[in-house]
Amino acid sequence: MRKNEYAIVDIETTGGNASGSRITEICIIIHDGIKVIDRWETLVNPRKEIPLPIFALTGINNEMVACAPIFDDIAEKVLELLEGRIFVAHNVNFDHSFVRHELEHAGLKWTTRKLCTVRAARKVRPGLPSYSLGNLCRALDIPLTRAHRAGGDADATAILLSRLLLWDEAGEIAKMIKRNSHDQNLPPNLPQSEFEQLPEKPGVYYFNNQVGKVVYVGKAKNIKKRVAQHFSGHKITPQRQNFMRDIHSISHEVCGTEFMALLLECCEIKKLWPEHNRALKKFEPKFGLYHYEARSGYKYLGVGKLAKGQTCVEHFFSLHEGVNLLLSLAGEFGIDHRFCHYGTPDTWDFVIKKGTANLPDIKQHNAKVEQALEHIVGGKSSFGIVDKGRSGEERSCIWVENGHFYGMGYISSDVGITQALELKEYVTPYHSNRYIMQLITGFAEKYPGKVLRAEVPVEE
After folding, report:
1. How far apart are CA 175 and CA 177, in angstroms?
2. Which residue, among 12, 27, 20, has the nearest Cα to 65 in the 3D structure?
3. Are 423 and 399 in contact (CB under 8 A)?
4. Alpha-carbon distance 119 to 110, whole Å?
């Protein structure tokens, strides 16, 4: 390793992520910590069309790169310039992801330490209104010619690095480039201090964008360790690039257990609907079991899509699941299938007229429907779960009322609970959904010793 030699890199590309885009231009400047000692620049044939918006930004078109070398032809040269030097770029993870991907594609292995001049500038010159390269150059009086071209941006970044090294009396850059530093893996706009202050405890963490809007919610057994995992590895998907770009701050909430964190995560995703949360969204129920009484006095059951303003007896993730339950109820309680509807509630306009042949006795029929509803609703129990708290002075508690998640919270360890229903006073209410109840039911079955059952059904 050459002592404190830097390879300042800037690239232009056909798009925003290394998995589907290619390099069209690269410039590498070698800096010894005081001055520039070497410089190399070339156009690159990406072997694919350059989109018009990219041409409008960079000025590089298909004709300009037609006779340029492909990356495989310059890979050895690139590796020679980068090997043993600290890789420097403005928003380093973007440039690094492309260069590493191209070198791997050419069959060359390469690892290096990285330095992001966005993050370095935030540490050495805090308080500036913007840390984009153009705005930094204007604020710090750095010449920037040929903006959005590899050579022009690399030249400006080299001057920026020289000044940051000169101004860095606190040795921030030396800390950033240590091999065990997490700094260079963090998103460019995220202050390292926010990461370092994260607790190593169970809880929920929130990634926020530039205006403070939550764009991702996650849960963890160890918040700090889990957050660090988000930023490690070598992922080059568009989702990854957008994800890293959008994170400007982190907030968190410590929970007593990982299970409490899991429930809070589900509730927060349901409430906030963050842009980058995708996995849990598929668990949103889309269908429901409804019941209503027609003008004739006959009661009906129906399965259909969930609709705003309509209350249903039960939720389902699929129409098939709902139909199976309705068929099962009709068979078990002897309900005439003519009084069972399937589809969407607004299509349930076909009502059997009184006097139609072979209709069941209205009182007997309605009693059967009520029995079926009682079987679903009445069979749902109320219970609490008590577990570890956030400290030794408290316990966590969850309350389920008549088969629905009511809420969760914390109770002081010196409070004595004689009846399960007393837990309800100590929880914060949350909205229930079927996925959360599946989690709670599974937990209660696995850890029966933590469950407190209500002796009688709770009146709603």
Report:
1. 6
2. 12
3. yes
4. 23
Give the pLDDT confidence of 199-254 residue by residue, as tens digits. Answer: 999 999 999 998 999 999 999 999 999 999 888 766 666 677 788 889 999 999 99
Return d(Cα 14, Cα 46) in angstroms, integer. 8
283/199 Cα distance (integer angstroms): 29
β 249-254/340-342 pair status: unpaired
Region for residue 148 given its phi and psi (left: phi exceeds 0; alpha: psi -120 to 50; beta: otherwise): left
pLDDT in tens, 339-366: 988 765 555 555 566 556 688 899 999 9
Instruction: Give the three-class secondary structure for 31.
Output: strand
The distance from CA 1 to its chain's CA centroid, rounded to whole angstroms, is: 38
User: Beta-carbon neighbour count of residue 18 at 10 Å?
Assistant: 27
Looking at 202-313, list the stretches that DSSP marks H as alpha helix, in order from N- to C-terminal side.
223-230, 238-246, 258-272
Can you tell me the distance from the alpha carbon of 163 to that of 169, in angstroms, rounded to the nearest whole number?
A: 11
User: Which amino acid, 192?
Assistant: Q
Torsion of Cα atoms, 54 then 55 then 60 then 64, to 10°: 120
Distance CA 137, CA 159 (A): 9
* pTM beyond cutoff 0.85: no
CA 152-136-194 angle, 5° bins: 125
358 burial (CB, 10 Å; 0-12 / 13-18 / 19+) is exposed
Q: C-alpha distances in angstroms, 154 versus 9, 10, 77, 144, 377?
A: 6, 5, 17, 9, 67
- φ/ψ of 151, rounded to 5, equals -65, -45
What is residue 37's three-state secondary structure?
A: strand
pLDDT, tens digit (0-9, with 9 covering 90-100), for 301-328: 989 888 776 778 887 878 888 888 899 9
Give the type of residue at 18. A
H or E segment at 161? helix 150-167
Q: Are strands 203-208 and 114-116 parallel, antiparallel or unpaired?
A: unpaired
Q: Which residue type, as a one-letter code, is found at position 123?
A: K
How would DSSP label each residue in 332-360?
A: HHT--GGGEEES-GGG----PPTT-TTPP
Report strand pairing: 383-388 vs 451-453.
antiparallel
Distance CA 421, CA 458 (A): 8
Provide the token pair at 161.
Answer: 């690095």
